[in-house]
Amino acid sequence: MSAPLLSIRGVKTFYGNIMALAGVDLEVREGEIVTLIGANGAGKSTLMMTICGTPPPREGQIIFDGRDITRLATHEIIRSRIAQAPEGRRIFPRMTVFENLQLGAAVTEFVHFDEDLERVFTMFPILAKRREQRGGTLSGGEQQMLSIGRALMSRPRLLLLDEPSLGLAPLLVQQIFGAIRNLNEREGLTIFLVEQNAHHALKLAHRGYVLVNGLITLQGTGRELLERPEVREAYLDGGRVPRD
Amino acid sequence: MGERGRVEYFLQQFINGIALGSIYGLVAIGYTMVYGIIGMINFAHGDVFMVGAFLALIAFLALVAIGLTAIPLALFLVLLIAMALTALYGWAVERIAYRPLRGSFRLAPLISAIGMSIVLQNYIQITQGARVKPLPPLVTGGYTLLEHDGFAVQLSNIQILIVLTTFVLMLAFSWLVAATRLGRDMRACEQDLKMASLLGVDTDRTISLTFVIGAALAAVAGIMYLLYYGVIDFFIGFVAGVKAFTAAVLGGIGSLPGAMLGGLLIGMIETLWSAYFSIEYKDVAAFSILVLVLIFLPTGILGRPDVEKV
Ligand SMILES: Nc1ncnc2c1ncn2[C@@H]1O[C@H](COP(=O)(O)OP(=O)(O)OP(=O)(O)O)[C@@H](O)[C@H]1O
Ligand SMILES: [Mg+2]
Predict the structure, then answer these.
(1) Closest by alpha carbon to B154, among B302, B14, B22?
(2) Beta strands in chain B (DSSP E)
(3) Most A-contacting residue of B99, B177, B199, B203 (CB-CB within 10 A), to test interface
(4) B134: preceding bond cis by omega (within 30 degrees)
């Protein structure tokens, strides 16, 4: 089997003296959807951010596409074609939808901007209607679509999605998960997905990891994990309380 | 002085206020841009303005020494030279005093900025001397707009030059921020620095360029100050800096139109205060406004109430 697209080895990340990741090993192969599930505060978002070098890990190594990116600056990591739709969406509030998408395309030097814009507007037609509206005035669902669309504008080889379904109505969750599946199946996009919505995520993903207090405690295919009693108990039947 | 004379006196002060306010506005932009992006008050910015004025003076004397005496050409060259060299100072200040402290505790860059301000003042004081440096009036003449009761309203050529230059620079700068890639990157950094980096924006470079542009604008202000007053010393940056900072706060720190508006208002208030009350207390007026604005209108006239950077 070929080398994984992303490989994380023994990564430890600290906030000051507090250790948020305690030695994470994980890999994502080309063409996969891999999901990471875990309780609030487990360190999921920290791992997503650590991959992008903000903050960088204190120990361990991150290899992307055969290249060690552990010590690169964030913008250099992003320019190696990793895109993230981060937790909280982080839409630029005083820029239009169009400008937000333009910023997403910056790493491509705008060579296929019109084509990529068209693709995002086809995927999320509401964004085309809101084109000149300021990001800060979009609804939560629209912001989430914009956040994913913005990440796609860079034509990433690896897409990091941090809780894309957070705070969305069930119908929208379906729509977003449908879009993720399409991206993977039709375009072969590799996706690393963090979700609290473990049921959805594990059904969608090829493989999954469970993160507890900064450590991977379980891994397997989506189906395997769905059937593990400890997963069912902690993340599925346990009456997950949605945040916010 | 009759009724008419009063009107003319006021008009004259109004014109003077706009010219002075333009200078403050150009400096205020540097404060506001840097604050917008990294949330710090660059206390050394007033001194960068002062360095700009000195560089302009030196450049002018050097040009005269090599025999270039055509004043419009000399002024244009001085403008370019001073802008470029002052931009270098702005860049160096950020690199040396602020970048190493990024991610440090909030007061660290502020203290470093005050240190940088003192360093620049002492550096100019030692290398250029503590006494005031004069420049013979280069741009002379003007127009008499009104004359009545023996009181004439004058619009001098130097005032026209100041206001026009400021206007053109403001247009160019607004265009840069609104319509260029660098401007978009700057706005992105201002709104969410981390997200900007997550989209591949080189935030360190963008911050550097912000200092460079702010310093270049301050250099223009320095040249205008030099031409307008004809004398400079190593201390002008402190007083002008506080006023420009007040202008930025009054207009709404972080807001570019606010900086310009604040500059004009402060220039106007200072001029009118000197004309009608007391010239000795003109600086006190600016400081008092700063205090009052901070108490009663902390977000300024055009500032956003949703201050994200605490
Ligand atoms: N900027 C920060 N400074 C200090 N501690 C932080 C910071 N960000 C996260 N932490 C801490 O690191 C731990 C992991 O946080 P993280 O955001 O990665 O969790 P998460 O798994 O994404 O949780 P959630 O499901 O709630 O999003 C938490 O204990 C959190 O309090
Ligand atoms: Mg999280």
Answers:
(1) B14
(2) 133-134, 142-148, 151-156, 231-232
(3) B199
(4) no
Tens-place pLDDT, residues A179-231? 999 999 999 999 999 998 888 899 999 999 999 999 999 999 999 998 888 88
Atom 5, ligand 1: residue with shortest CA distance: A15
DSSP letters along B244-293, please? Answer: HHHHHHHH-TT-HHHHHHHHHHHHHHHHHHHHHT-STTHHHHHHHHHHHH
Residue B81: strand, helix, or coil = helix
Q: Is residue B270 situated within a structural domain?
A: no
> Domains in chain A, ordered, with CATH?
1-81+157-244 (3.40.50.300), 91-155 (no CATH)
Counting every residue written for chain A, the total comes to 244
Number of H helices, E strands in chain A: 10, 10
| B291 part of a folded domain | no
Query: Tell me, what's the pLDDT at B168?
Result: 95
Which residue segment(s) compose the domain that B110 sits in?
A: 19-141+151-237
In a domain, B251, yes or no: no
User: Model-level pTM?
Assistant: 0.91
Nearest alpha carbon to residue B50 among B234, B283, B242 = B234
**Number of domains making up chain B:** 1
Residue B247 inside a domain? The answer is no
Q: Which of A15, A166, A213 to mutate to test the pocket of ligand 1 (most atoms within 8 A of CB)?
A: A15
How high is the pLDDT of residue B305?
Answer: 58
- Nearest Cα to Cα of residue A116 among A127, A129, A101: A101
Nearest listed ligand to the Cα of residue A24: 1
User: What is the per-residue pLDDT across A36-77, written as a single tens digit (0 to 9) for each?
Assistant: 999 999 999 999 999 999 999 999 999 999 999 999 999 999
**Which ligand neighbours the alpha carbon of A18 most closely?**
1
Q: What is the 3-state secondary structure (H, E, C) of A211-223?
A: EECCEEEEEEEHH
Average per-residue pLDDT for chain A: 92
